Structure formats: C-alpha cells, structure tokens
Amino acid sequence: MNKRFLTIIFYMLVQVVMAQSKFTISGTVKDAKSGELMIGATIRVRELPSVGTVSNEYGFYSLTLPQGQYTLQTSLLGFADQAIPVNLTANQRLDLVLAESTQTLQEVVVKTTAANDNVSNPTMGVEKLAVKDIKNIPVLMGERDPLKVLQLLPGIKSAGEGNSGFNVRGGNSDQNLILLDEAPVYNASHLLGFFSTFNADAIKDLAIYKGGMPAQYGGRLSSVLDVKMNDGNNQDFHASGGIGLISSRLALEGPIQKDKSSFLLTGRRTYADAFLKLSNNSASIRTRFISTMSMPN
Questions:
Q1: Which of 9, 15, 19, 241 has its C-alpha lying 20 to 30 A from 160's C-alpha?
Q2: What is the pLDDT of residues 4-48, one digit of tens each?
Q3: pTM exceeds 0.70, yes or no
Q4: DSSP assignment letter at 67
C-alpha cells in the first residue's frame, strides 16, 4: 500500500511539474502609425516552425509554449516583418507594433506593339504613325499635315517643295494607292498641293507599305498609304482646335449614345482667299488657281 501510494504521489508531482513548465505569451498587434488593432497578423515561432497563431478581430493573440528562449516573427501584408526575442520563464504580455512598409515601384509602360516587333513580324517595308507622333513633329507654319510628315520617313521623297505629294523608292506620285478607311482617295491635296486632304484631328493612325504589299492592296506599283479615321469619343464631349499662320481648325466629338455610338466633326479653314485679295491682279490669279485645281491629278 505504501509503495502504491508513493507511486501515485510521484506521478501527480510529475504532472504538476510538467504543467508548470509551459507558459502563455499573449498581447495585441497594433499599427505603429495610427495605433489601430491589426486583424489577421501572423505570429510564428522561429524555433518551432509548426507553431503559430493569427490575431483575431480584436487584434489579440495568444501562444502557449514550453519554457525557453524563442523569437516571435510577426508579419502582415503591407507592413514590415518584425522579429522579437522572448525569454519565456513565466506568463507574460507582449504587445506587438508593426510599421508600414512602403516600396516605390517603377513605372509601367503599355505599348501596342512589342519591342522586337520589327524583328518577329515578317512584314517588311511598313511604317506606322500615330496621331501623337504627327503632333510631336515640328512643321512649317504650324500646319500638321500627315502627308508632309510621311515625307520625312526613309525611302520617301517629296514631289516638290511645299507639295504634299510624295514619291516612294523612285516611283511617281500617281503610283501610290491612298486609302481612307478602305476607300480610295484619288486627289489627296488642296491648294496646288500645299495642303493635303487629311485633317490630323480626324485621323487615328496611318500605315504606309513601301514594298512587299499584301495581296488585298492591288492596283499600284509604288506604295500603299492606309489611313484610318478616328472613331470619336463615345464617353464624353470633347472639343479641340487651333489658330495658325496659314489655317485654323476645329474638331468636335462626343457620344450619340454612350458606349454605343459617337460623332466626330472636323473642319479646317485656310487664308488663301485673303492672300489673293492682296494681289493687284487677284482676278487673273484666282482664275489660274481655279483652273489648276480643276485639272485631273
């Protein structure tokens, strides 16, 4: 009986010692800047990878660990990780504070074509221009003419000083096929070739094929100029314009039915008639001008 009694007492003492060797560490997780309680913060024990907890909706956490020295690692998305050494010899309270982690990211540039498109794309002799490219090129007297900009590209030469016509790789100007939304344009210039028919405010982009033209572009020997019109803004009304030395322009666009249809109105007015009035023999000059404009291109 004595041996049995001593065994029971010894077993109870071992259980008490083992129970007393575990301690609880608890506290709250707060934002260092505002003091707000942090929900969902992860608290892990570096020395015990399988042991950890998450702060509840009140920012409270609790861990029960055997006596010893540990390192508490606290992490939360958007905040810097924190590691705190703890000597756990008794139940204790430890409040954790997390600071925001800010990181400056590099800018993201979205382009319509890949950087190596000219290598991976087998199409040869194609040049494409967007409206913003046309507007960034300095031009004479502020008149941004798409055909005048084309004359600056390699392989394209002006048909004459101040003329909007162009020759491609030695061909004549009448050997160029000019399309406006797939419709052929037979006379692409005004005012003796000084102005082109195309208004930069009404154009989305243009592409010129200087060689190796696709099969759908037939009927010309030198090149193909494919011009696409602007669709118009179907979200908000927008107006733009400008006053230049030789012409003025105005563009209006906006939705007819939002997200479904839109309208686009553009106009351009030159001052050629005003210049003719300054001449002493304006009648004869106007007659020659009208007869020249009526001649076929």
A1: 241
A2: 665 666 556 545 545 557 899 999 999 988 888 989 999 999 998
A3: no
A4: S
Coil, helix or strand for 61?
A: strand
> Which H or E run contains 148?
helix 146-150
- Is residue 210 within 8 A of residue 168, CB to CB? The reply is yes
Instruction: Give the integer Cα–Cα distance in Å for 70 and 23.
Output: 12
pLDDT at position 131 = 73
User: What are the φ/ψ torsions at residue 23 (nearest 5 degrees)?
Assistant: -130, 160
pLDDT at 199: 79
Nearest-CA neighbor of 93 among 1, 184, 27, 173? 27
Cα 189 to Cα 187: distance, rounded to the nearest angstrom: 6
Quick one: tokens of 114? 């890949």
For position 280, what pLDDT does the model report?
A: 62
> How, if at all, do strands 68-75 and 42-45 pair?
antiparallel
- CB 76 within 8 Å of CB 7: no
**Which residues of the chain are modeled with pLDDT < 50?**
14, 17, 284-297
Enumerate domains of the chain plus CATH numbers: 2-98 (2.60.40.10), 117-294 (2.170.130.10)
Task: Give the position of tokens 């010692």.
Answer: 17
Determine contact, residues 237/253, Cβ cutoff 8 Å. Answer: yes
- Which has the closest alpha carbon to 144: 96, 196, 100? 196
Dist. CA 40–CA 258, nearest whole Å:
43
Kindly state the DSSP code that residue 219 receives in the 8-state scheme.
S
Do residues 43 and 73 touch, judged by C-beta distance below 8 A?
Answer: yes
